[in-house]
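Intended use. Records like the one below are meant for learning the mapping from a protein sequence to its folded structure. Do not use them to infer anything beyond what is encoded.
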Amino acid sequence: MERYLCIHGHFYQPPRENPWLEAVEVQDSAFPYHDWNERVTAECYATNASSRILDPGLRIREIVSNYTRISFDMGPSLLSWLEKNARAVYQAILEADRESLGLYEGHGSAMAQAYNHLIMPLASSRDKETQVLWGVRDFEKRFRRQPEGMWLPETAADLETLELMAAAGIRFTILAPHQARRVRPMSGKKEWQDVSGARIDPTRAYRLRFSSGRAIDIFFYDGPISGAVAFERLLERGEDFAHRLLNGFSAERSWPQLMHIATDGESYGHHHRHGEMALSFALRFIEGNQLATITNYGWFLEHHPPTHEVQIFPDSSWSCLHGVERWRSDCGCSSGAHPGWHQKWRAPLRASLDWLRDRAAAIYQLRAPAYFRDPWAARNDYIDVVLDRSEDDLGDFFDRHKAKKLARNDWAKAVKLQELQRNAMLMYTSCGWFFDEISGLETVQVLRYAGRVIQLAQEIEESFDPGPFFERLAQAPSNLPEHGDGAAVYRRFVDPALVDLQKVGAHYGISSLFEEYAEDTFIYCYEIERLDFRKSTGGSAALATGRCLVSSEITGDSETVSFAALSLGTHDINCGIRRLSGVKQFKSMTGELHATFERGAFSDVVRLMDIHFGIHSYSLRHLFKEEQRRTLLTLLKETLESSELAYRRLYEENRLLAAFLRETGIPIPKVFFTAADFILNLELKREMESDTVDGGRVRHLLQECRKWDVQPETVGLEFALRHTLERSMEGLAAMPADLRRLEKVEELIGLAAEMPFEVKLWSVQNDYYRLAKTAYP
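Structure written out for the chain above:
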């Protein structure tokens, strides 16, 4: 009996980019990492690229890439982030697919994904087509080959979507077993067999035929074992995982069996710590003992094509018992984190976005023919610009699709139309409906995309009125009284995030009070060309004035902005922005401002700023989040330093007294304990971040913590020591013959082992393992 095994991982993160900045801003809930993409990469995507197989003594026997041996899809939004922010992991994923081509006779293990994880059965026909084509094109650009399979977000399927996939050259997809309705053999005239209720046999491929004559093959994953990976802690032991997988085979089947599961890729390391190691062990155990042949779907289809055809339940998915209602109604499906909460907001949210999508489509249909011969074909092709926003690629795009010769100042107008459509699709990302509350991060994210659509629509069509959008959104009730409804959530979380070129200019003006910019610089996806700049300082006060050309890398829009920014040494910073018709006027106004500032007449400076630059006023609260934090820390520097001195004095001067109090059983005053807690943890962090860590001092500080009953701040300290170790390891990798560096690394590894918390040595182990196999064979 032929037995084959395939494990599919659906790797995906919801887009977290600020739609105006095209970058992920800091997310405090991901501490000590910058954001959740960075955290999940460290815990899952990177670890699956270098997973451990241990020997009986729990030493590393081998480091392997799971991506080479499993089937996987990875969302384009995630791959785009990895390409920019975790390049080594990104390259390891691409390389793993290349290796799998050799292992499986030209069938790569990577699959494409419908582009931005919207629920396809609920999308318009045009959006379905674009999502499929964009997913294919993104895959081809990254993996340098055509995709054989495509993952549908939430496995949500309908016949139109599946036929569009087949038309795009997709051979197969994966669905949940309960999405199958009935099956029958492809040969003979046997009757259809009802397999509803997840009764389909998951160990073979099935063919779905369309009336057009096209067809697509479908694999229905093993539901119980897939569920056990997600919810039954099956990844705690690799051997248990292997045996559970093998239980999916049956001696009663006479055909070649494909035992396969489909799971969230984040199960392997993020949701379940060391889950990637359980996966590596299971694959090695099964293959090493010749219990089954590890393969992927493309290879299996070539050697064992379908013998049965299938019909599915349309508008069905893997994560909603009610089809696709989770993304449009209060069907009862939720995360379960907040018992008693309703999801009555889901239907009004979708209604508001549907209205906005249709209005955006109408604007596009009206305005796009002025620039594109076939506007919808141009939209389908716009993914090439998204993937490479260079001027050459944009020029090639216009050469292929322009309706007439376009002047350069027409390019920005044409791109805005395409960005209107891109964001109109992004606002349907499935995560916006998946969880429990309309004010949650994921739903606010889709509302931010809606905000970008509204902004672009108003710039393209001045008569555009978003009123009906907000009327519908106001019908979406929050579970939290302080948030009220969807319209209030929008005002609270989306309005402050809105960015235009003047706001970018204000950010540049305010931040220039505290940092030096080059003549040409970038702030996220905006290029700033300095045309004029002057700065005056006096004590803790500063005045900056200037003119700059602000240009969007995304749309090509540009605007000359004049600014005057004033800080009096507190968080109360004021910045005025205006358009000025001439340089002479600017010089006259700013000259008066600086002359007044240098006389120390700050109240007159404020008055003159209001007169000359009070048309658009901005403050520290308008800075982008990360610069806002840096600026506040700069302003707080003296306060923090004096506070540290006070705490240090309290700790040092009362250290012996506290010891005496402990001996006599008298409680230590809380103020002394607070000072010790602050100083000891601060000193530990500084020492662990140092390139010359003093192990003796670290041990002394930890001993002091034990004396004072101070708990080390383990998360931040672990992160600091780990990164110091990683920097030391990078230095050793660059100079492997430097024995002093080797000794220092080994000292740090020894120190890490003594810590009262686990230091994650995954990256250090990777580098050490590679060095051991090359520089120290």
